UniProtKB/TrEMBL annotation:
A single BP term in Gene Ontology: transmembrane transport
Protein name: Auxin efflux carrier
UniProt KW keywords: Membrane, Transmembrane, Transmembrane helix
Listed transmembrane segments: 12-37, 73-97, 248-268, 288-313, 334-357, 369-389, 401-424
Cellular-component GO terms for this entry: endoplasmic reticulum; membrane
Membrane-protein topology: Multi-pass membrane protein
Lineage, opening ranks: Eukaryota, Fungi, Dikarya, Ascomycota, Pezizomycotina
Region (Disordered): 173-207
Predominant localisation class: membrane
Signal peptide: none
Bias-annotated ranges (Acidic residues): 177-196
Cellular localisation: Membrane
InterPro entries: Mem_transp_PIN-like
């Protein structure tokens, strides 16, 4: 049976429009910085709020609403696949750096792609263009199908963030928006040392001062100090290998993972699921106010984080403009990363997921799951590279090279439309079997 040209043109144009919309959103972030509407410091704080508040709220809402005792098993293949492709990418990057003498940052550019804001914004744009209608099963609610797709991408994002926390310190350091900041530690150490602090009836008052009365704060602080001392003493009594293992596991204790756990508990516990997500007249007493609050806060994540990406790219462009010698990007490095991110992984993932969907029972019968898994490993490198050279104290020339690389990476984001079209057509073919 022949393939009509429109069968490819329509989804290609839709995917291209969705990709361009993401790029325009990034451009709005650049304009925000250029017109001094958001400073670099403020953007860093907004980015921290995105990862530590908006994303966990989104995970709680999306996972809680889509998870139940019957659908929980759907997410296991995503966990396995997310861990697998990230570690495989890292292994390929390490080997390539050694064999082809590529810069050290290349392995990170290959290992960690943008798994959070970009896929979510892409899904929203694709749904607007109507491209995804072809893979929504008959009788399935379109909004629920899109919610499921977003929840699948969020699980992948949680895995990526957790691996970044665990592996980042050993691969130079995780991204500045995801990792605990040195600024946080400095802020904690400098409490009480600022010259312009207000003194209230309960002592020195600043932005870190608890709103609780001092008589309530003191017992809490004593309990915290006592618990900290006991925990520290217990950890120091462990053998070195156990301390290293605990330190490694502690890297996974991040806000997105906690949001995932809370969302899973709510979704998999029938009474809680009913309280949070049923109609108010059907037992959902928390739906109208608490669940809606989580939803409203969570929906801030995707667009806000993309705006912050634009601000960071603007900062990089300014540094490039100010630098006398901005360095030269290795053509081998650029070609390797782009081919891996936009062509290699789609070429591997699409037929692999298609085979699993049509010839095995490993995956569920949800086409949105197949489509999401085909796209998870594609896309530009994550903004982890922004903090890379600052952490390692690299020369200014290398910082400019990485800034150029990220700018080009997000400029060619529309290349992901090829992976989108391939995933869409493969999913349609799998549904037809």
């Amino acid at each position: 049976m022949g393939l009509d040209t429109s069968d490819l043109v329509v989804p290609f144009v839709g995917a291209l429009q969705a990709s361009v919309s993401v790029l325009i959103t990034i451009f709005f972030g650049v304009l925000t910085a250029q017109f001094n509407l958001l400073s670099v410091g403020a953007a860093k704080e907004v980015s921290r709020a995105c990862v530590r508040m908006f994303l966990p709220a989104l995970l709680i809402y999306k996972l809680g609403s889509n998870l139940n005792k019957d659908t929980g098993i759907l997410y296991l293949p995503i966990l396995i696949w997310s861990i697998s492709y990230t570690l495989i990418s890292l292994g390929i990057g390490v080997i390539a750096c050694r064999v082809f003498k590529l810069p050290n940052w290349v392995k990170l550019a290959v290992a960690f792609n943008n798994t959070t804001s970009l896929p979510l914004l892409l899904i929203q744009s694709l749904s607007t263009t109507g491209v995804l209608d072809a893979i929504i099963p008959p009788g399935d609610d379109a909004s629920k199908a899109l919610d499921r797709a977003e929840s699948y991408f969020l699980i992948n994002a949680m895995v990526s963030n957790s691996l970044t926390f665990a592996l980042g310190p050993r691969l130079l350091r995780p991204s500045d928006e995801d990792a605990p900041d040195e600024d946080d530690k400095e802020d904690e150490q400098s409490d009480g040392e600022e010259e312009s602090m207000e003194r209230g009836p309960d002592g020195i008052v600043d932005e870190e001062t608890s709103l609780l009365p001092q008589r309530a704060v003191r017992p809490i602080n004593r309990l915290e100090r006592r618990g900290y001392k006991r925990t520290t003493k217990w950890i120091q009594s462990l053998p070195p290998w156990a301390q290293q293992l605990l330190d490694f596991l502690y890297q996974f204790a991040n806000a997105p993972l906690l949001g995932t756990i809370v969302g899973a508990i709510i979704g998999l516990t029938p009474p809680l699921h009913r309280l949070f997500f049923n109609d108010s007249n059907n037992g959902g007493y928390l739906n109208a106010w608490l669940t809606t609050a989580f939803k409203n806060v969570g929906e801030l994540f995707a667009t806000t984080q993309i705006i912050v990406v634009g601000v960071k790219l603007s900062q990089s462009l300014r540094k490039m403009k100010a630098g006398k010698d901005s360095g030269t990007i290795s053509k081998k490095s650029m070609a390797f990363v782009f081919s891996m991110r936009f062509f290699f992984w789609p070429a591997v993932t699409i037929p692999l997921i298609y085979a699993l969907a049509t010839r095995t029972t490993v995956l569920s019968t949800d086409p949105m799951l197949w489509f999401a898994m085909m796209l998870m490993s594609s896309g530009p490198s994550a903004m982890i590279l922004v903090a890379l050279t600052d952490v390692t104290g690299s020369p200014e020339e290398e910082k400019m090279v990485i800034a150029k690389f990220l700018t080009i990476s997000y400029a060619i984001t529309p290349l992901i439309c090829f992976a989108v079209v391939g995933s869409l057509k493969a999913t349609e073919a799998a549904v037809a079997r």
